[in-house]
Design a protein that fits this description.
- The chain is α+β, with helices and mostly antiparallel strands.
- Helix content is about 40%, strand content about 15%.
- The strands form four sheets. The chain has a five-stranded mixed β-sheet. Strands 6-9-10-13 form a four-stranded mixed β-sheet.
- A hairpin with a 2-residue loop joins strand 3 (about 45-50) and strand 4 (about 50-55).
């Protein structure tokens, strides 16, 4: 239960409450101070935190610090002591232990707020959602933000830590839940897939109309997922999907799009981008995987290795860069949509973050691929790869900024909760200086992001094109430098 080490990219500041728990809260008993004081014996232990009363009788045996400390403070309001040792979101995990509200506690108090609520914690929100006037956001952006946040808090936060630590891949049920809630489509950005949702019975979160959806809506969705604070788990929820599905919708044949598109949007099938190799990473022109047509011209036989393929371990389809020519130029490259099957094997790669995102080696040995799975024309692969890069880099920056904002909000709350030498950490000048430095860097970065995102909204083709390549690359660079600073300040 103790807060322990302060990981700069841990989520959980924003508190959730299921609808069932909300209904239970409405009928909970009012507990007087006298009644609370009667529960202070081993086997009968109650405590009050933030006006909520918890029965910790059975939990005392499981407490990491032993039952003695629980017995010492039982029968009273322990709000101050609790927050000297714990993060506030600990109370979410143990909400089932609540038995009532302390008499005289203010209505609307307690640790648990409604899912999707906008936070009042300083710097926990984009400034536009804490009172700043902004030309970029409207009511539809607020609705989408709160809808996505509610989904993240209720469906993802409860499983994030265990999945990340255990290295568990997202199962089909979770992937379908992401698809059917619209969470996959909106993180692909504006595009034809949004209009296809209606025929599948899927709504854009927050009731946003497809024609109203812009890159700021997408930005908010990525940042809310980023708030989960566990990069491996975040990437397991669609990092590979998000950079491969748009290529399928843009470049695959109409027959493939009609057959596979709905399955992707609903989360029934999963695609990944399969470009990097042991021989070539950023130098895509040096790729060595080959695709040769069979004598009858009906199939490609594909052989080669792909490496560091995010979500590759559990993907159904691989948007794969292959060499179809022998001229030694970028025109040798083509893109194929390869379905998992005979001749294609994936092996988990252990990386510096969680294995739950299925980073894989993809081994292809004479994989038989129908020529109908060629994306675009032969020789157009290099252009298709470049088509993805700007949006991919922007998406990475957006997610990281969301992680940084949550880290700062977590640290701000903890510095107010934790008391040492008789006063809160935030009263220490050195702590205030670190918080101020991180906040200044974060908000400067957010302003840069909004400028680039607005440019994307007004540019034909969005992020595609040479002109935006420079600004987006600088944004990504600045984001990584700022993330290091925020991580260092928050851990300190």
């Amino acid at each position: 239960l103790k807060f322990g080490s302060n990981s700069a990219f841990r989520a959980g500041t924003l508190i959730t409450l299921s609808s069932g728990a909300a209904a239970l809260c409405a009928v909970m008993q009012i507990v007087s101070q006298e009644e609370l004081a009667r529960h202070q014996s081993p086997g009968d232990l109650w405590m009050a935190v933030d006006g909520d009363v918890y029965d910790v009788s059975k939990f005392a045996r499981l407490h990491p610090g032993g039952s003695q400390i629980i017995e010492q403070y039982a029968g009273r309001d322990v709000t101050t002591v609790f927050y000297e040792l714990h993060r506030k979101d600990v109370l979410v995990k143990y909400a089932k232990l609540r038995v009532g509200r302390l008499e005289g506690a203010k209505d609307g108090g307690g640790a648990l707020g409604e899912p999707g609520a906008i936070s009042a914690v300083p710097f926990a929100e984009i400034p536009a959602f804490q009172g700043q006037h902004s030309p970029y956001y409207g009511e539809s952006h607020r609705r989408l933000l709160q809808a996505v946040r509610a989904f993240v808090q209720t469906e993802l936060e409860p499983i994030a830590e265990s999945a990340d630590l255990a290295g568990e891949y997202p199962d089909l049920e979770l992937r379908q839940k992401l698809g059917r809630s619209g969470m996959m489509a909106i993180r692909l950005g504006p595009g034809p897939w949004l209009k296809a949702l209606g025929s599948l019975g899927v709504k854009i979160p927050g009731g946003v109309a497809p024609e109203e959806f812009d890159y700021f809506h997408e930005m908010l969705a990525h940042q809310e997922f980023g708030r989960l604070g566990r990069p491996g788990f975040i990437d397991s929820l669609g990092a590979g999907f998000g950079i491969s599905a748009p290529a399928i919708f843009h470049f695959a044949s109409d027959a493939v799009k009609q057959a596979l598109g709905p399955q992707l949007l609903l989360g029934d099938k999963w695609s990944v981008l399969s470009i990097s190799e042991p021989f070539a990473g950023s130098d895509v022109a040096a790729l060595q995987a080959t695709a040769e047509k069979t004598p009858d011209g009906k199939f490609y036989m594909v052989s080669g290795l792909k490496k560091w393929i995010t979500e590759g371990a559990y993907a159904d389809y691989f948007v794969t860069a292959v060499r179809t020519g022998r001229t030694g130029t970028p025109k040798d490259l083509s893109m194929l949509l390869i379905e998992r099957g005979p001749g294609l094997e994936t092996k988990q790669i252990k990386t510096t973050y969680s294995t739950c995102c299925g980073t894989a080696m993809v081994i292809m040995n004479n994989v038989k691929v129908p020529v109908e799975n060629l994306m675009g024309k032969e020789g157009s692969g290099f252009k298709q790869i470049m088509y993805n890069f700007n949006h991919e880099r922007w998406m990475i920056a957006v997610s990281l900024i969301g992680q940084g904002r949550q880290a700062l909000a977590d640290t701000f709350m903890w510095s107010r909760q934790r008391k040492i030498f008789g006063k809160s950490l935030i009263d220490q000048p050195v702590i205030r200086n670190k918080l101020a430095a991180s906040a200044a860097s974060l908000e400067t970065l957010q302003a840069f992001l909004e400028t680039v995102t607005y440019d994307m909204c007004k540019t034909k083709g969005g992020a595609v094109g040479d002109r935006l390549a420079g600004p987006i690359a600088m944004l990504k660079y600045h984001t990584t430098r700022t993330a290091w600073q925020i991580a260092d300040d928050c851990v300190q």
